[in-house]
Design brief:
By secondary structure, the chain is mainly α. It has two domains: about 140 residues, no CATH class; about 180 residues, no CATH class. The chain is about 75% helix and about 0% strand. The protein is built from 15 helices and no strands. Helix 5 packs across helix 8, helix 6 crosses helix 9 and helix 9 runs antiparallel to helix 12. The protein starts with 9 loop residues before the first helix and ends in a 12-residue tail after the last helix.
């Protein structure tokens, strides 16, 4: 296994592969949705077609990205295109989770036989594709259905108890965003949209904007941009050294989540992957916007309808995504600095 670079570990599968899967989603479904929405609003058919083609390639894009993270040989990597398509199609709405599980297994089987025979050009793709597609026919439907049931339960519970579930979803997904795992992939796998998606966006924004603003004295403009539009994961080394620095943005997310669900009724009805993106490239906000104008298939299943956003909707999104996370995190950080929980340079990026 060492010779074949097969490493069965939580890091390899739960961090590397999951994070790569999210990137595959960004480069297909997410960017495709944005381009398609722009085309629909501008009445440009070529943009609609481009967006549609890109969106339809989400399965292969995720599988190849996972194979890249697992350091697959080229023949295995290219064979994962078929595996990703099959797993995503058979998994239906829960396709992303099915692709993650099946692409990992198919990739590792492919790596086992890669370059072991004189007919490698036949054996490697055959093993990778047969294992992957067979698994897609066998286990992708129950994996996809299971993921959707979990996601549907979270969304149902959020509708039923918007205050407490808004807080729980906001805090949980926000923490996942800062951890070295992919909150975007988690939201995509569970199909989080609607109020639950709005709470997830609120939690992610609280972490990113919170860390960016409260660490401004240490990191200045570079840190503001890299964390606010990049990722709060940059603070993980500092969190390991002093976990108390996580208190301000987490408290902020516990407040903005219920405000999003109870006051502004903020719904994220774009593609579910956007729910776990926060302000990274403004993808979370773009997801909310596309959901207003053209709800995703998952959102339509939940009864979402296109709306013409007014001042209340735009104002709510700005407050939840930018203003409140910044203000609350600075206040909580100031208190933590005064009582000694956070010291000078605890938030400085290396």
């Amino acid at each position: 296994m060492k010779r074949k670079n097969i490493e069965i570990s939580a890091k390899r599968y739960g961090i590397d592969a999951l994070g790569a899967m999210a990137q595959g989603l960004f480069c297909s479904l997410l960017i495709g949705t944005i381009i398609k929405t722009l085309g629909q609003q501008l009445g440009v058919q070529i943009l609609i077609d481009i967006g549609q083609y890109a969106s339809e390639m989400s399965g292969p894009a995720m599988a190849v990205a996972i194979g890249y993270a697992l350091k697959c040989d080229p023949m295995v990597l290219f064979s994962l295109v078929a595996v990703g398509w099959a797993a995503n199609k058979e998994g239906e709405a829960g396709g992303p989770l099915a692709v993650l599980v099946i692409a990992i297994i198919a990739a590792e089987f492919g790596k086992c036989v890669s370059k072991e025979t004189k007919v490698d050009i036949l054996v490697t793709p055959a093993v990778t594709i047969i294992v992957g597609v067979a698994l897609a026919k066998w286990i992708a439907p129950p994996i996809g259905a299971g993921a959707m049931k979990v996601g549907d339960f979270v969304m149902w519970a959020t509708e039923l108890q918007p205050f407490w579930m808004g807080m729980l979803v906001s805090v949980t997904v926000g923490i996942a965003l800062t951890l070295p795992i992919s909150s975007a992939a988690i939201c995509a796998s569970l199909g989080l949209v609607g109020l639950a998606g709005g709470a997830a966006v609120a939690g992610c924004c609280a972490q990113m904007v919170g860390f960016a603003v409260m660490s401004f004295r240490e990191n200045r403009w570079g840190g503001l941009v890299s964390q606010g539009l990049g990722t709060s994961m940059l603070q993980m080394p500092n969190i390991v050294r002093n976990p108390l620095i996580w208190i301000p943005p987490t408290l902020a997310s516990a407040i903005t989540g219920p405000i999003a669900t109870c006051v502004f009724k903020l719904q994220m009805n774009g593609e579910p992957v956007s729910s776990g993106m926060g302000t990274c490239g403004l993808v979370g906000q773009i997801g909310v916007w596309t959901g207003w104008l053209a709800p995703s298939a998952k959102a339509l299943e939940q009864g979402a309808e296109a709306i013409a956003p007014g001042a209340f909707e735009w104002g709510g999104m700005l407050l939840i995504c930018f203003v409140l996370p910044a203000v609350l995190s600075v206040i909580f950080c100031g208190i933590c600095r005064k009582i000694g929980c956070i010291k000078e340079n605890d938030l400085k990026l290396s």
